[in-house]
Amino acid sequence: MIKEYYQFIKEYLRLARPRKDYLSITFLTAILYKGCALLIPFFASFIIKYATIGDFNNTYLSVLFLGIAYLFYHLFLYSNYRIYGKNMQYCYTNLHTKILNKLMTVDENFTKKISKGKLLNSINSDVLDIGDMLDTLSELLMTLIQVIAVFVVISFFNIYLALIFAIYAYIYITSRNYYDKKVDEYYQKQKKNNDQYSSLFSQILNGLQEIKTFHMLPKLHLKLNKIKKEYSKNYMTKRKYYVRRENDVRFITHTFSILLYILLVLLMIRGKIGVEILVLVIGYFESMITYLDDIIESSSTIREVNVAVRRVDSILKYRSKEMLTFGEEKAENIKGIIEFEHVSFSYGNHKIVDNMNLKIMPKQITAIVGQSGTGKTSIFNLLLRLYQVEEGTILLDEKDIYEYSKLSYSSIVSVVNQKPFIFNMSIRKNLDFVDKDIAHQIEACKRVGIHDFISTLPDGYNTILREDATNISGGQKQLISLARTLLTKSKILLFDEITSSLDPETADHITHLLKDLKKDHTIIMITHKPDLMKRADRIIVLHEGKIVGDGTHKELIKNNTHYAWLQTRKSASKMGVFDHD
Fold first, then answer.
1. Sign of the alpha-carbon torsion through 9, 15, 21, 25
2. Which of 79, 178, 424, 494 has its CA 20 to 30 A from that of 90?
3. Do residues 539 and 533 lie in contact, with contact meaning Cβ atoms separated by under 8 Å?
4. What is the pTM of this model?
5. Of 321, 388, 379, whose CA–CA distance to 352 is shortest?
6. Residue 31: which residues within 8 A CB-CB, separation 6 or more?
7. Average pLDDT score over the chain
């Protein structure tokens, strides 16, 4: 058992890395207030001893010492609680930062191995549990010291009394530990059920429209009920062991209390001890019950928290062959020249990009077109460094894109998606994430043509956007997203089907806007709209991961059958845009 807890503690310290000063102060204050707690029964016994024989001077002196012990107990306990709060805040912030930073480097396989439900529960509850661990550790260690001190004191008065204490402690801890392991076993299963439920419920929230349209609710109810049934089964089994634990340990305590009283009475009859020793021993036995409860509770908490430690650790330790690594190169005076040199990339066993050679120049609009599955979106994902190139090299201004630092590269390349993500907060706060300068925000909004609309709103830039910006039109949402992108000062702008779901007027406005943006940007867009293809300066036609056409609309329409077919295709819904296109 000791080896098991040692491993638990070792894993916690490696993960949480609490500050050394917080660690030291936590243990010091715990030692001091636990020490004061040991003195309280001692002084109480002296009060009874001196009061019984009529020595009131020593009685009052013992009362004074008891009061001082109580005073320092509460002062040290208060200090312990204060430092605990500071450590809790530190660990909470530190672990949240680690998890968020990790999410910025993971590959597409991450969500296959770690569910969204587990991730949400880890961020919400596991991190809080881990923050509590330091206080629990100090409680456990100091309480063990208290138990040892009680044995020493009792042994000084009578070895048989100490033996009863020792046997009681062993049986109590062994029984509690067995039941706690069983309780924790099923608690862990409940956590897994919670992850499954949260993950499925999150998917339901994301797909409410489809669920209503296709009447999926009855089948989803069955899935949810299956998870809830499994959860209830694990809960009831855990509860069974919990009830047995509470009943058995109380029986053990009551049994040894009777044995102790019998032995104390016999010792008093024989004149071996006085009434003050009886009071002291009884006081320490009652304290021993509390100490053992504290040890068990701390041990149980450590075991439960270790579940949280392992869950968070599995997120932070996630590794795969596609894990992204970045250099330290800073982006300065970027021209925006992009080159693909013999680049290949596969998703699973399917090659999406096949030995691609391509050079994209700034100050022009380059359109990437083709049927679904030809590699359009994968090119964007590679440029955004969401995936690792399998073969070949992608260069930005003649440097490998993976040599740039994470922060530096994110300021060079930005993407505007077909369905941009907008936070449920004000327009200004959505823009603040990129640049808090109000003048810059207004300038960007004017350039994309959304400033006048924002000015007509009652709260202007302080207007709160609902979740997914449902209180404004799709076109207005797209323009706000574009303004946010311009605030990044990115030299390279990627546009992924941004006009596909917009009304003709807004789509035409964005088309003219792209012509303005190309003056000082490298513009690359994915589109299936023939009209938008025609307005591009250069068109790259893809087929089965290879470039099968490269030129202007006039050049390609004459002699490229793949492009000619795309121009005559009218059903946009057949084209589709997929994550692994």
1. negative
2. 424
3. yes
4. 0.58
5. 379
6. 142, 145
7. 84
